[in-house]
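LAB NOTEBOOK - FOLDING QUEUE
OPERATOR: T.R.
BATCH SIZE: 2
PURPOSE: Compare the predicted structure-token outputs for two unrelated chains run back to back under identical settings.
PRIORITY: normal
REVIEWER: second-year student, initials M.K.

ITEM 1
FIELD SEQUENCE / FIELD STRUCTURE:
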Amino acid sequence: MLFVGVASAFAVVILNSLSFGLSAERLVDSLTHTFFIASMVSIGILYLAPRIQDLSTVKRICILVPVIFAMTMIGIVMARTFLSLFDINLFDYFDVIPGPRTVLFSLLISHVFGLGGYIYLHSQHKLNRTRELLRQKELDEAKAKSLAVSAQLASLESKIHPHFLFNTLNSIAALINEKPDQAENMIEKLSALLRYSLDFEPNKMVTLAEELKITLDYLEIESTRFGDKLDYDFEIKPELEDKKIPAFAIQTLVENSIKHVVAKNSSKSKIHVSAKNSHGILKIEVADNGSGFSNEEIKGGHGLDTLRKRLANIFGNDAKLETNQDETGGRISLQIPV
């Protein structure tokens, strides 16, 4: 609106100079009228702009034109009253009541620049509203994405708890009648597993040492069930034990070997758990003497598939779950950034 006033003053001075020549009287007259008229028109437009922004173009013009007319007349009267207050010969010819030329000239300038100023304000409002709508849309999309992730995590959690606990309870049930002492020992191990499981969240991170401890408890339970059929060992350097990994990550890999190798093999089965850190990538590998399988053979909704989805939610594309097989057996490797 300051620009409207300055532009109006410049236009008035130039037009007056072209019509009547440039003089001190005309310059003071032009600047005084411009100041009061532009101020009043600006006040009117600034007051109306937010109140008529949602109306149609025709209605806005029908409101603006008479308002600019009224504010222009008020500005003219204020300007001439101001000038008439000076009892100086320079301003002796001024009257409070303006002549028709002054009125027509003032109305023309005020409507041109007043409507121009309003158009600028209205376009800025539309631009700001568009930006706000875009920002709100981005927030809504982010919220929807967050809710989708939360729902997926909740779905994963609902699958992990019963899957793990039911398998453990089945192992204990198989020993209650034949080996009650061993079953009691397994129940003690199970209590530790339950505490760990109840604190579980799909995106929870634990230290490698914590995960190894719970995996060892699980293997001890299963070794009681399978006896000499199950052999296992760990190859973990102590400096890696404080690295963070997803909870139940190693246990899920080991459980897969128990389910698909140890439980189905009549001969002795060996599970080897190892970990190493290479260039900021922690690689955890669980190897067994089974026949192995490919990534494509991982069934949806099962333990490895659930772990793979958890890794994607936590690390995106920075984590990998891969399967390999050779003449020595099958291997499942987990690679995550540390």
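ITEM 2
FIELD SEQUENCE / FIELD STRUCTURE:
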Amino acid sequence: MNLKPTLIVLCLTTLCTLGYSQGVAERCERHTMTFQGLEREYYLYRPAGLPADAPLVLILHGYGGSALKGKTEMMDVADTGGFAVCYPQGVKDPKGKTGWNVGYPPQEGMKTDDVKFICALARKLQKEYSLSRSNTFLSGMSNGGEMCYLTAMRRPRAFKAYASIAGLTMRWMTEKYSYKHPVAFMEVHGTEDRTSEWLGDPLNKGGWGAYLPVPVAIARIVTLNGCTEQTVTELPQREGRNPVTLYTFKGGRPLEPDGRPAEVRLYEVRGGNHSWSDKDMDTYTEIWRFFSRYLD
């Protein structure tokens, strides 16, 4: 009996189990665009048979991170949800770390305007690949999460909704900008995150610059939206993992006249660390479930 095909199948199954499944480089198309004199890199995933005018989700990596290490689980959600996913690459700051310019002290002297870049990238993708101009969404983790807050302040209508994971509102942002339009926004954050502290860092002890407590940052958006209702939901707890409480703020002003009210969600991962919290909850499905509420 020839066992070679069986052995091949077993080996492939083992590799997938160990985490050697196809990543961004294998599943996405690599592209570049010139912006502000720099060649910017990004990776685009389009599920097979994706129709014209499909939604688009941009995913921003963290400080020192890479688009090539983007979470492939979002592509899996895209397969069933029917949307495109783009993983842009941040540029190096004066310290040699890749990321998004949100005014960290190590980024002093960095002239890149990443809010303008991701907005320009979204428009480029919409035009070149016939993706939806209205159903475009932004998400990011850590430094990418900070970009969600900053973009929501500067260009709130550039994206239909925002999902920050372990992100922060830097104090300088509140001093320079204010929210001027209702924003559909969600935040997932661990209470034991020692990089992006749940209770904030008003004295800049961590070296990232002073930033607000997470509940306070979310309260600013709740107030902006004029939300009048709050519900508290305990997500089903995974065995041996941290419990997650979802605070949902409803009853606010709509994003557009006669449109759906701008909802705000805060996922409090009790005991969670600095991560996507995907071991404690199905983060990627929750992101798309939130975004899909605002599809035209």
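REVIEWER COMMENT (ITEM 2): Helices lie at 4-17, 24-27, 73-81, 114-128, 143-154, 171-176, 214-225, 283-292.
FOLLOW-UP: none requested
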